[in-house]
Amino acid sequence: MAGLFITLEGVDGAGKSTHLEWLADQFRDRGRLVRLTREPGGTPLGEKLRALLLGEPMHPDTEVLLMFAARREHLAQVIRPALSAGEVVISDRFTDASFAYQSGGRGIGDARLGILEDWVQEGLQPDLTLLFDVASDVAEARRSAARAPDRFEREQAAFHLRVREAYLRRAAAHPERIRVLDGNRTVEEVRRQIRNFLEDWL
Ligand code: TYD
User: Tens of pLDDT along 149-182?
Assistant: First the structure.
């Protein structure tokens, strides 16, 4: 069976993590082996870079370069081998997050990110990206309920607004791969949207 590469995206507070295990079960129920992973992170080195990225103040260029350094390792050690073995790889965030946060949020241009994307991914793209889109006030309320907020969660509302807009632009540019979900709904309703979509897609 061919491997499948699925990524989950959305602003902080969009609720994607709530659906991660459930989504994995949708594939396990169909007899597939699932590899759950996340970015930044997913490898021992990547998790060390994650701790720096989420905690340490740094120049925006350093931030984007570390994101792609972690991604390079993740692709080499986890994503490509699992896909070659026919597994379903589900990653909590991937490159669309860099376009949203580092380009949209921090203002690094898409052109620079495109160069890193081509370099690091060598043409590999997710087969499917689920983008959990929520109204800014809903995400804001969920973020403020969060325990110790990280460096990104502490950013002001305008930053998160730019992140959301950049995600939606990315979805409009890649309709063949990115599926936008209405994350304002209840958990059950969001799952129904995903289930309906997967039935056709698979
Ligand atoms: P997140 O996935 O939201 O994890 P948690 O649910 O534990 O908070 O946190 C990862 C953060 O990293 C998130 O705020 C977005 C940010 N990020 C980027 O800015 N660029 C990227 O390329 C990636 C993968 C993540």
Answer: 999 999 999 999 999 999 999 999 999 999 999 9
CA of 40 to the centre of ligand 1 (A): 7
Complete DSSP assignment for 82-147: HHHTT-EEEEE--HHHIIIIIIIIT---HHHHHHHHHHHHTT---SEEEEEE--HHHHHHHHHTSS
User: Quick check: 96 and 167 in contact, CB under 8 A?
Assistant: yes
Pocket test for ligand 1, best of 7, 8, 12 (most atoms within 8 A of CB): 12
Distance of CA 106 to the CA centre of its chain: 17
Annotate 80-97 with b (16+ C-beta within 10 A) or e (fewer): bebbeeebbbbbbbbbbb
This prediction's pTM: 0.97
Q: Helix, strand, or coil here: 178?
A: strand
Which among 134, 152, 162, 163 is the best mutation to test ligand 1's pocket, defined by most ligand atoms within 8 Å of the CB?
A: 152
Position 23 pLDDT exceeds 90? yes
Q: How many CA atoms lie within 13 A of 180 on its CB side?
A: 18
